[in-house]
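hey
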């Protein structure tokens, strides 16, 4: 009897608590019934095909038509126009005693670039003086021969020999004078110092005059190279498969990496006939008027445009998903089935639209928000 009385409070507590437990269970069940059912995704045999039990949660949009001229973007480097680059030649050999210009300087035609102390000047001047004496002697002998011939003292052949000697002497004298002019030496005031001046106006793009321990020396045959940079080249690498989009004489747009907001017009000047065997690219040369921004060695991007406009698709930018370094859209297959379709996206368009180069065509339907469906798939 004692044990029965001890158990009675426990039984009463359990009897009172059971309704509460049953009420809690019923409220939890009602909450689960009121919540929307979760979306269930079933992957099919194809890894890019999915089945969704609530497809209405992912509204569709129709790709519209967009006309665009096909464009090809390639990279290039600014280089001087070889036809506008002139090497500075010192016609007198010797020791460089002064350099008046350096690499990168802008110079004018006739400007002094350097001075050379040359033994060629003394040799040329000596040849000139000898030619002057020889011509004077030949002239005197000719005058004497003419006098003797008029008096019948010599034969006509002797006069002709004297005349020939005078002509040869004049020829040697004229050659000696031209040599002095070539060396820019005044025959009346000779100097062993030769001035080397700029043949054209432009920018010094190469320098082979070096200074070592205070001594100037030539490291090559041309001390300077001057380039007229009013027109420059942009040399681009175009892959073999893209050469059909490039034609000599057509125009292209050039944008410098240093000034991406400025677009320069260029003309395709030449397509070199030799391909790089390792990367299968051809050099395409563009001629560009330089507004003063372009410097030799700058990186640039050239855009070549096709001859005919192409019809392409355009969809909202949210319909394109970038995944695994590729672009995708989701297309409906019916009955809750969707396919993840790879596409090649193009330029951004107004109203948050984006061009699709390939993968879908105008009129095709795609999921308007590809990221939302992708997040559901990943769950």
């Amino acid at each position: 009897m004692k044990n029965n009385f001890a158990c009675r409070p426990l039984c009463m507590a359990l009897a009172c608590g059971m309704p509460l437990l049953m009420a809690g269970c019923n409220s939890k069940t009602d909450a689960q019934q009121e919540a929307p059912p979760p979306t269930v995704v079933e992957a099919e045999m194809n890894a890019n095909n999915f089945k969704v039990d609530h497809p209405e949660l992912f509204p569709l949009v129709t790709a519209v038509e967009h006309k665009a001229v096909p464009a090809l973007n390639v990279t290039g480097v600014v280089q001087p126009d070889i036809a506008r680059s002139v090497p500075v030649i010192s016609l007198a050999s010797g020791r460089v005693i002064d350099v008046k210009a350096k690499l990168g300087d802008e110079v004018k035609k006739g400007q002094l670039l350097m001075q050379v102390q040359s033994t060629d000047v003394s040799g040329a001047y000596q040849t000139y003086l000898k030619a002057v004496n020889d011509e004077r002697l030949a002239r005197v002998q000719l005058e004497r021969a003419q006098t003797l011939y008029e008096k019948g003292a010599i034969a006509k052949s002797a006069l002709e020999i004297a005349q020939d000697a005078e002509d040869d002497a004049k020829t040697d004298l004229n050659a000696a004078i031209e040599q002095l002019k070539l060396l820019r030496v005044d025959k009346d005031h000779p100097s062993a110092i030769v001035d080397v001046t700029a043949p054209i106006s432009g920018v010094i793009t190469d320098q082979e005059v070096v200074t070592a321990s205070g001594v100037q020396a030539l490291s090559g045959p041309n001390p300077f190279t001057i380039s007229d940079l009013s027109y420059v080249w942009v040399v681009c690498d175009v892959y073999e498969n893209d050469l059909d989009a490039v034609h000599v004489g057509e125009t292209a747009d050039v944008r410098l990496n240093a000034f991406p907001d400025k677009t320069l017009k260029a003309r395709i000047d030449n397509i070199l006939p030799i391909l790089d065997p390792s990367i299968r690219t051809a050099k395409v040369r563009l001629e560009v008027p330089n507004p003063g921004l372009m410097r030799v060695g700058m990186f640039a991007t050239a855009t070549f445009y096709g001859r005919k406009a192409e019809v392409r698709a355009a969809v909202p930018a949210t319909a394109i998903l970038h995944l695994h370094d590729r672009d995708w859209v989701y297309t409906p297959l019916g009955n809750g089935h969707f396919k993840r379709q790879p596409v090649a996206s193009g330029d951004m368009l107004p109203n948050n639209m984006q061009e699709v180069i390939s993968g879908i065509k105008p009129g095709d339907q795609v999921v308007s928000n590809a990221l939302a469906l992708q997040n559901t798939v990943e769950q």
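Residues 43-68+309-378 form a domain with the conserved putative lor/sdh protein from methanococcus maripaludis s2 fold fold (CATH 2.40.420.20). The chain has a mean pLDDT of 83.
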